[in-house]
Design goal:
alpha+beta; D-amino Acid Aminotransferase, Chain A, domain 1; 6 strands; 37% helix; globular
């Protein structure tokens, strides 16, 4: 099973968004699956609370340890109930069909609120 999680930070904490399960009609989440409707994206993912907690922890740790900024997306593949890192996307898509906007919506966060918090953080970091 492949899953994806968005992560961002505000002035107080690193925040993981709801995880998205990617169900591809193809063997891989390739161009056709991603852009030509050959996959379903289910947010929140149908995974156990234990796996959610593990993915959230790994994602927050990576965000902090790699000194990431803004909003990012991390993809995992789950094998035998264990998440394995696939990639970190530091410039995720933000179109209506992209995963991040769906996760923002599932978290009941407005896009305006999210970007305002990230802009305030960037301005405060610039002042330092």
């Amino acid at each position: 099973m492949e899953v994806s999680i968005g992560v961002y930070s505000n002035q107080n904490e690193i925040i993981p968004l709801p995880i998205t399960e990617i169900v591809s009609e193809k063997d891989f989440f390739d161009y056709e699956a991603k852009y030509q409707g050959k996959a379903k994206e289910i947010t929140p993912a149908n995974i156990s609370e234990e796996i959610k907690k593990t993915i959230n922890k790994i994602s927050k740790d990576l965000y902090q340890k790699l000194n990431l900024k803004g909003i990012i997306r991390i993809d995992f593949i789950i094998v035998n109930d264990k998440p394995h890192l696939l990639e970190i996307n530091t410039v995720p898509g933000l179109t209506e069909e992209s995963i991040i906007p769906k996760q923002i919506s599932a978290a009941n966060i407005s896009t305006k609120e999210l970007f305002e918090s990230m802009l305030l953080l960037a301005l405060n970091e610039k002042k330092r």
